[in-house]
Every structure is written in C-alpha cells, then in structure tokens.
C-alpha cells in the first residue's frame, strides 16, 4: 500500500476557489418579478430548501419575488415542531419554517393551495406558517400565468 503523505484537512481549510465568480452579479431592474414554484415534499430532498434560499436571493437582488406552494409543496409551509410547534426535534428540523419566515420578513410573498392542504393532506389554513396566503386551486395556474405575462423569472420545482 502506498503511504499517505499529505497532511489531514483542518477546520478552516477549503477545497475550492470560492472567491472567483464567473458571471456578473445580476440585479433586478425596477418592476422585475420572480416566481419560485414548489411541487415537492419537505425533507425528501434538498430542492425545497435550496429553492427557498434561491427565492431569498432573488428578493435580495431586487426582484419582487413570490413562492407558490402546491401539491405536496404545501407541506413546506405548515407549522411543524416536536413535541410542540416551533420546537426543533433534530438539527435542521425548522429549516423550511425559518427560511420561509425570513423570506416573508424580507418582503417576499408565499401562496399555498387550499385544495392540496385539505383534500390531499387533511390539513387546513390554521396549520400554515403565519403570513402565508392560502389560495384556491384555480389560482395556481393564474399565479403562474400572471408572472409569465410580467416576463418574470420563473423557477419551477417538481419532484416525484
């Protein structure tokens, strides 16, 4: 066996050049909009959290940003905790809630489909994180179409 002669990595070391940005830092023009849609399950992949962080970043770049939760995506917007609502049962348990709350506190809008809440997941509007706007199932398509008409940046997220 060959001997390993390299020193072990230490906290503070890095593996990549994290300072060298390739693309210009795009900012929104006045009136630019963005929509991030979620048809994904909480805790079943990273895309839910990643795209909430993308929505926060779009907001910071000056886009009027909305998040649309529909289908299983509504589960990203429900209050959670164990043993009590708000308690963090394990590290990262409140990531969705905390980041959606941050997004809304920074001016973002979040919409959740009432049909998915009740018909699919047996939940209701009181279960939503305060500040999330419940919408009719017909509003899901219209929300997307209105953003499309406004030439918004649209990031669609589907997982199955």
Automatic annotation (TrEMBL):
Organism superkingdom: Bacteria
Gene3D superfamilies: DsrEFH-like
InterPro entries: DsrEFH-like, MSMEG0572
Name by which UniProt lists this protein: MSMEG_0572 family nitrogen starvation response protein
């Amino acid at each position: 066996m060959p001997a390993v002669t390299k020193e072990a990595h230490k906290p503070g070391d890095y593996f990549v050049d994290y300072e060298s940005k390739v693309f210009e830092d795009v900012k929104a023009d006045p009136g630019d909009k963005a929509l991030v849609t979620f048809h994904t399950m909480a805790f079943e992949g990273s895309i839910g959290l990643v795209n909430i962080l993308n929505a926060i970043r779009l907001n910071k770049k000056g886009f009027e940003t909305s998040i649309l939760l529909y289908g299983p995506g509504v589960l990203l917007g429900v209050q959670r905790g164990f043993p009590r609502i708000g308690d963090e049962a394990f590290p990262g348990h409140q990531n969705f809630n905390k980041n959606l709350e941050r997004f809304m506190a920074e001016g973002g809008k979040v919409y959740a489909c009432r049909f998915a809440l009740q018909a699919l997941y047996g939940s209701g509007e009181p279960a939503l994180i305060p500040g999330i706007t419940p919408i009719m199932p017909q509003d899901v398509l219209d929300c997307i179409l209105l953003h499309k008409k406004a030439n918004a940046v649209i990031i669609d997220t589907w997982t199955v």
